[in-house]
Amino acid sequence: MKGRVLVVDDDTALAEMLGIVLRGEGFEPSFVSDGDKALAAFRETKPDLVLLDLMLPGRDGIEVCRLIRAESGVPIVMLTAKSDTVDVVVGLESGADDYIVKPFKPKELVARIRARLRRSEEPAPEQLAIGDLVIDVAGHSVKREGQSIALTPLEFDLLVALARKPWQVFTREVLLEQVWGYRHAADTRLVNVHVQRLRSKVEKDPERPEIVVTVRGVGYKAGPS
Amino acid sequence: MTRDGSAPEGKRGRTVGPAGDMSFSGKVSAWLLRGGQLLPDGAVSGPVHPLLRLFSRWVRRPLLPALRLWRRNIQLRVVATTLLMSLAVVLLLGVVVVGQVRNGLLTAKAQAAQSQAVGGFSVAQKMADGADDTRPDDIARTGNRGTQDSATWLTGLVEQLASGGQGVFSVVALSSDSDEPFGDSSPGTRGPRASGDVDPERSVPLELRRKLETKSGTFRQYTEIKRIGSDDGVSALIIGKRLNDVNSNQYQLYYLFPFSQEEESLKLVTGTLATAGVFVVILLGAIAWLVVRQVVTPVRMAAGISERLAAGLLQERMKVTGEDDIARLGESFNKMAQNLQVKIQQLEELSRMQRRFVSDVSHELRTPLTTVRMAADVIHDVRDEFDPVTARSAELLRGQLDRFESLLAELLEISRFDAGAAALEAEPIDLRDVVHRVIEGAEPLAERKGTRIVVRGAEQPVIAEADTRRVERILRNLVVNAVEHGEGRDVVVRLASAGSRSGGAVAVAVRDYGVGLKPGEAARVFNRFWRADPARARTTGGTGLGLSIAVEDARLHGGWLQAWGEPGGGSQFRLTLPRTAGETLRGSPIPLEPEDSRRHRGLDESGRPRAGAEHKASTIPVQARTPEAGDAAAVPEPKVSWPAADPVALPGSGARVVPQGGSVRSEEAAHGDSVRADEPDREGGAEQEAERGVDREGGLRGN
């Protein structure tokens, strides 16, 4: 399994420990400890995943996250010491796919990383339709009337999960399990934030969504084709 | 009412009981509370007929706003009182002055009238006498025409006498024998004669006429003059005398003095006085209003500003002008406000700093803790390669890191509550799902303990607007606690909901049959780092913050988390949540004290049947009151002394216990509880508890 992981963390002990654990799990970690150098290191190493500490000297994690997201859909997992609403939501809105709260167990971390990398395994060719969108699962593309829409892998996975079963209403918990790989109940804000991000890209009018429809009190479902 | 200090007896015999200890002010206030009726304690005032009460309420209702205004508005009260009192004074003055004036006028009139009348009478007498002397011929000439003569003479006399007092008096002459019907006043007869248009018959009262007939002399009487063709009378003084006419026939001559002038004068005086009085009253009212306003306005301003201060607007100050008493009030008020503001700001600053410090420490600790945690896990994973001592050390290291971590997490959660940063994400949830998830999670622990977790009341959905994460955290805490302290006996989780309209409530009660709670503990279990018994160990390594967080979580929902327990009889923790987030709770569908408590089954502390089992009826908690005050007051045993309102109890954590004799013991336990005990002997204690425990089966069947 390929797995170049860029660790952006200013705490050298933690970074080293992360390196030990990641290497033990077969990943190839590289490190950067300064927010200002993070983007350069990202361009240089072209990682498959970024582990990003939110509290960084120089540019803070949120800013780094936004910069990386601006040029790549690479999975970003935030490391945060604060699980308070605002911090996490701001991180997710700036483009992170998932977050993990310190202190975490190594297994938890590895599971999160694996879940984010899992999708890079080649899927079978599959064509899906949702609303007026056409999804080529293998080709990893979403098109509306021939125009392709750029989605991050996570947003793509979310859309595919909904489009595969257009008759089903997905609760946030189910989506967390299917898309994020959480086995137990986790933070449903992940789903909320990413549905918003997805809608801002695929909906004609994000205020009145037609592709990803909210089912009040339950969750989300795919809009009618 | 004898006060302690002035007891007349040599010894100070103080009666036992609350009434004996009551201070004077206490008695007074108690008397006031009983509605001002000086009745002996316990006596009930006489029964008021319900209809009467209904009537008085019906009468009072429309008056209530006015009454409230009267009670609340001092200016209105002062002005109204001033108006009423000045009105009374002016009226009294008016009555006295008018009376005096009237008396004076009447006296003067009476004197004038008397002299006038006496003069008139003598003139009339002289005329009669003179006619006798000077006109014998005429008499002889007229011969038997004497009657005619006499009548003419009388008419002439009346006219002559009356001509001198046009408007001032009238003259009436009545023949003594004029018993024949009146009305025939032709000058030929000896009928009555009157000057002007005075109606002689109706004007001269019969009483006076009879007096004149029987007695000689001058008489007078107050009466009313009636004019011919009119029923309106004019008050008058009438003076009469019996005289002889030219033919020596007797006739009565009356002088009538009407009071029209005097009445005019009196009217004028009265009118003047009334006008002046009205002006005085109005002016006095206005003056009172102005004067009171001067005092009341600053007082009102102070009241308004202190209200705003109390509402948290600490910058509010009074406007101070001048150097009078009001200005001094304003100055000292402002000084007080200033001091308050400074103190509050200091405290707020301190508390904010402290909270931020806790939060920062928790956060700062997390990064190194993550490293340590990962390192420990790495070491733990390869512990098989170590020698036994190192391997065990690795295990201990990891285990304690778990504990450290959860403690840190809960500290952070508490600091978030303290900072007011906790937000409720409420949505309609079915509490049954939450309960089942929680029980599923607690199942491994329950199995280890040999405990069965029973759910009751889960036949119907129990829906409430709540934050799943928080409710689950509360219930997990309660269930794990119950299993932990349940001595391996069943744990019953009961669900209920009540009230379909807004204001409905749902409740989850977790009942265990373990060691229970000692008196006073039910309130303290929610205190931070509180331990039921420092001599007892925890097997799951709780942090001591779980219930504190649970209470905060419940409070965030506007709900209650309350505990009940009896020593050796188990405990019940009840979570009550409003069905709609933010509603105020008025009650809980589940009584705090379970039906199978010892007291409800009529047993005493040791499980034997008790004499006073009739207490049962009074133990259903009255939920309409606030949980703290209501439940503390509902404790039915009044003789045991424990803090009625536990000062350390967190709001919302109302609690009741069945007290035990040794309240001292619980105090000691409470004070020593913050000391952490390292793995003390649990088994021994558990067995002891089990021996004096209740019949579990019976208890459960009792439901």
TrEMBL record, chain A:
It comes from the Bacteria. GO terms for cellular component: cytosol; protein-DNA complex. GO terms for molecular function: phosphorelay response regulator activity; transcription cis-regulatory region binding. Residues 125-224 form the OmpR/PhoB-type domain. Residues 4-117 form the Response regulatory domain. Signal peptide: none annotated. Pfam families: Response_reg, Trans_reg_C. The modification 4-aspartylphosphate is found at residue 53. GO terms for biological process: positive regulation of DNA-templated transcription. The keyword Phosphoprotein applies. Residues 125-224 bind DNA. Keywords: DNA-binding, Phosphoprotein, Transcription, Transcription regulation, Two-component regulatory system. The keyword Phosphoprotein applies. PANTHER family: DNA-BINDING DUAL MASTER TRANSCRIPTIONAL REGULATOR RPAA, REGULATOR OF RPOS. This is DNA-binding response regulator MtrA. It comes from Streptomyces angustmyceticus. The lineage of its organism: Bacteria, Bacillati, Actinomycetota, Actinomycetes, Kitasatosporales.
